[in-house]
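Closing statement on the magnesium ion sub-project.
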Amino acid sequence: MRLTRYFLPILRENPAEAQITSHRLMLRAGMIRQAQAGIYSWLPLGFKVLSRLEQIVHEEQQRAGHIPLLMPTLQSADLWRESGRYDDYGAEMLRIKDRHQRDMLYGPTNEELITDIFRSSVGSYKDLPLTLYHIQWKFRDEVRPRFGVMRGREFLMKDGYNFDLTVEDAIHAYNRHMVTYIRTYERMGLKAIPMKADTGPIGGDHSHEFLVLAPTGESGVFYDRAITDLTLGDRDIDFTDRGAVSEIVETWTTPYARTDERHDADEFAKIPEDRRIEGRGIEVGQIFFFGTKYSEPMKAVVVNEAGERVPVQMGSHGIGVSRLVGAIIEASHDDKGIIWPEGVTPFGAGIVNLRQGDAATDAACESLYADLTKAGVDPLYDDRDERAGAKFATMDLIGLPWRVTVGPRGLAAGKVELTSRRTGESEELSPEAAVARLREIYANR
Ligand SMILES: Nc1ncnc2c1ncn2[C@@H]1O[C@H](COP(=O)(O)OP(=O)(O)O)[C@@H](O)[C@H]1O
Ligand SMILES: [Mg+2]
């Protein structure tokens, strides 16, 4: 993409309505625009990051054998009456009537709808296990939408639902989700810690929330420092191997880590003092096992091996995809702007032309642009007729992890400059070497 052809409405001033860094930077970098309180349009740069997060979520879910589908945003109130949640959900649910005065709602979550899909077509244990998921917009009429996309009213969520014959099978599904989530957040450059959680309106027996550490987080968190040393990396995981999957879950859930709602001061006090950390965190996902809470009232049953009809065992698992864009920025920025982790960056590198209009510099930028595109780096070329300072400020604000600076002086020596946004360190190298380096960096993104 060339900046002169792109749509990147950058704000020079700090928007007054933004209370936290990520909201301010998303507005300033032209990523989002508020349409109504808690409802945002995703402008091209923001949409690119959001789409990238969706892609990572899809890849990690499908790696574990979970199957994508797409359910609608508008749902029938009758289904929610069957589970009893139509009245329970309260004012957060946006209730709508169609022209026939039928009660509908904008889905805040999809347990009822997915259970209805399941019961209409699955009847035998032979069709299990089954995990279906989608990434779809949700609406919750939050009393105080705030912090931009972090607590919106309309927001994008990945929600997945497992259907299993036995409690043990459903616990395996729960464990699979925990492992896929850990890897998903790692690929996004985040450290998200699973913490024992309350189950809230979803209900059920078991739940973990995933929290990204950040001082602006809405939840108080207490944890053993040891947990922040754990990484999953890109090791091969056989998701059908229950032992292997539950061993990873064991490792990640053994150190103390709880949100304020579940905090136990006595347990916490047993950790060596230098490892006891109190802080704040942003909830970026939550998993639940709730057994037959929906399958029983909604009669989602299967016939087991003995020929008996039993309600299916279920769980649901959510990732706050749009909230994650804000959470990543909260975790990765400096006073000049965003610093995208390579895994989620909207463009792999920026090209800054220091002398726009100079034939040799323009030609070098053009060929770099073509070569980086061919190498799969997806560059953003700042081809505006602007001062170098303004171009650098734009690149720093939008946070691309790498910048290639091209100017007549360097070119005379056959060099361009490659700069890391994170460390600020620069290196002079040939354009070919810069392309090779960036190709390598993004090779297995
Ligand atoms: N109002 C919101 N705005 C943005 N993301 C949200 C919002 N509410 C929930 N999410 C995201 O969706 C994920 C799954 O939702 P869930 O756990 O059901 O919500 P909650 O914790 O609010 O009950 C949450 O972990 C969070 O990341
Ligand atoms: Mg939650």
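The mean pLDDT is 96. With this model delivered, the sub-project is considered complete and its resources will be redirected to Aim 3.
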